[in-house]
Amino acid sequence: MKKKYPVIFHLLILSFFFTCTSNFSYAFANGCITAACHSNLDKTKFVHGPVAAGECAACHGDSKDHAANPKKSRFKAITDVGKKCYECHDTLEKKKKTHAPVQDGECTACHDPHGSSYKFQLKKEGSSLCFDCHDDSIVGKKFVHGPAAVGGCVACHEPHTANFDKNLKAKSPELCYSCHTDKADMFKNAQVIHPPVEEDCLNCHNPHSNDANFMLPAAAPELCFECHTDMKEWVNNVATKHGAISQGKSCLNCHEAHVSAIPKMLAKPPMDLCLGCHDKDRVTTGGVTITNLKKLLADNKDHHGPIKQKDCSGCHNTHGSDNFRMLRAYYPSTFYAPFSMHNYGLCFSCHEESIVKDPETTTLTNFRNGKINLHFKHVNKPDKGRVCRSCHETHASNHLKHIRDAVPFGSWEVPLNFNKTNDGGSCLPGCHKIKKYNRAKMEINE
Amino acid sequence: MIIAIILSIILLLSPSAFSENLQPLDKAPDFTLMTVKGDAVSLQDFKNNALIFIYWKPDHERSILALKDADKLSKAYAAKGVRFIAITAELAEKEKINALLNQNGLDFQVLLDPQRKVYSSYEIRVYPTTVLIDKDNKFFGTLPGHALTYYSSLEGYIKLMLGEIDKESLEKMLTPENNHGNEAEHEAERNYNLALNFASTGMLHESLEAVKKSIEAKPDIAKSHTLLGFLLLKNNEPDPAIEHFNKALELEPDSKDAKTGQGAAYALKNEPDKAIEILSAVITANPYPQMSYYYLGMAHELKGEKDPAIEMYKKSLHNLLEKGILPSSFSKCK
């Protein structure tokens, strides 16, 4: 940025010379411009040098009798305007693209050859000149790009020649970075860049104006869904859509649009994102209360594996789901369920399923009495099988393996009274008398 | 005591070891398993190498994702003596295993654990589980599942195990954050750049508006005040210009640009002595002294000092010519 700093001086010096040129007009007093003829030609704010110097012949040539008989003795028309301009002005540097009036030598399409109220003797100010030829509807939408909003087309477009399409000063994104230096730095140091961003800012942003903020064609989620069609389909068809998608910034509540240091373009680490909203009891539109997870996790120190990994998406589909509690797979909400592998699809997407299929084991689980697999014994029943949540608190508890203190059973909170020993443990739940288990030496329970 | 402290630090930083009995720095339980190809492989074969094994299950999406990440890391850490293998209990699916690996472009030695000996001794409870064993064959910890941050977490733990990073660096890897800087600063910078762009294309009014927005967004950027000062000078408003040059100098006392502006403003206010005093000090060691010379010329002219004025104007032009930034019309006239 510091390198640009002296540019201030360059451009102001240039401006100074132009101003000096126009000031000469006040020194000029005779010739074609008199009170009777062409009296206004030198009265504009910005006067062409030869006019200011009274050197009309520099462009119009001589016509000795014009002063005596202006109607009959006219000047010869300037047929090749461009050629005439280039007699004094340097020809423009040849580049790949040339603005049509320049190409046609029609300098006077934009510049008044005598003078005007605008710098460089332009015929109109800012974009109003451009919109004499170009369609102004491009800046007519609700949100307009800053330079376009103030008529500064030349902030991005070269009025004469350029090396890029549309007479742009540079290609996107480099051109964009000439003002949006923060984005340039951001992208340079980014770990994950949204692919359309890497390609071209114009994939999402219109450089002139558009219907949504930041000159986007639509706000999230519609804009995002244009590419993420699978997500569109998913979100539009699931029974429960994550509330975050319908509120506030929608997708951008959780995802960054440009770059991120976190996979999936997340705005924050996954758990921080979730607990950013789930830090209070929330009631869904369907009237279901969702627990204050932040408090629950703070109060209960033994966390379920995915929570230890700070990954709520291990069990929940963060966009939405057809299952209870937006879970990735079916999970019974009841205390009892007849044994079926379908009931445990969610749990067994991580855990080993034979834990509820093998009646005996010495390797699958430590919850065994001798070889008797107590998981099998509790779960694998044709009618009143206990589901995982009958004993385990899914998020966290203050017991090893996040075993519950108690489990709701109708209006009763059934206590579990679980105690762990070195080789096993015991339970005295509301379901049965105290039962002990020991992996090394099988306990005989009544 | 020292050993106890070291042990506690290692325990604290270890991957999520949910193991009940196996603890970090315990001797890693030995094993000998057959590979899919029928070769016997034991833990001892990896002596003097760190070993990472992924206990996985075929047809399991997160297992495949973990293997893919581990595959990338295995290439990055091979030269550092870190070996990666995969272990599965699915004996009956040898062909499927090979097909899956090929299909996903994975190059892993896959060991079979049909008796679930490793599953049991390493207290595996979920798929995938990634187990880290250090070069001394000591259990370092496990990383269960495949969270979104699995790759960076596993890399963090590998680096910690190899002694390449400390606790603080590991924490940073485990909790990556987006730092997009200060929005007000960005807003100010965007508008400053736009103002500069407008000024260079002669759109001084628009430039003025943009630089005012820049200052509004963040009032303590010296260059914005300097640019605004020069734009005000162009509007022949030396008094407010001086205020902004003064502000710029308050923020950046050595700014030659702001001092030049200050001097120029006093010249425009017809206070040539003050202008000369300021501008004479600015031209030394200034890589862009053109404007300082120009306004020095103006100040001398105001004082009726023709020769020094001409000299300063010439120096101003000399510097302009050297930099090759003259407008073409002027070149034609020389």
What would your notes on this structure say?
The complex is a heterodimer of chains A (446) and B (334). Chain A is α+β, with helices and mostly antiparallel strands and 446 residues long. Helices cover 25% and strands 12% of the residues of chain A. Chain A has 18 helices and 23 strands. Chain A has a three-stranded antiparallel beta sheet, with no helix packed on it. Chain A is rod-shaped and about 135 Å long. Chain B is an alpha/beta fold and 334 residues long. Chain B folds into two domains: 173 residues, Glutaredoxin; 141 residues, Tetratricopeptide repeat domain (Serine Threonine Protein Phosphatase 5, Tetratricopeptide repeat, Alpha Horseshoe). Chain B starts with a helix and ends with a helix. The C terminus of chain B is likely disordered.
Task: Work out the oligomeric state of the chains in this entry.
Answer: heterodimer
User: How many structural domains of chain B?
Assistant: 2
Number of domains of chain A: 4
Percentage of residues in DSSP E strands of chain A: 5-15%
Largest interface: A-B, 68 and 72 residues
Task: Please mark out the parts of chain A with pLDDT under 50 across 5 or more consecutive residues, or reply none.
Answer: 1-5, 9-30
| Major β-sheet profile of chain A | 3 strands, antiparallel
At CATH level 3, the topology of the largest domain in chain B is: Glutaredoxin
SS-based class of chain A: alpha+beta
Which keywords apply here?
heterodimer, A: 446 residues, alpha+beta, 4 domains, 3-stranded antiparallel β-sheet, 23 strands, 25% helix, B: alpha/beta, Glutaredoxin, Serine Threonine Protein Phosphatase 5, Tetratricopeptide repeat, 7-stranded mixed β-sheet, 15 helices, 55% helix, 11% strand, disordered C terminus
Question: In a few lines, what is going on in this structure?
Answer:
Chain A is an alpha+beta fold. Helices cover 25% and strands 12% of the residues of chain A.
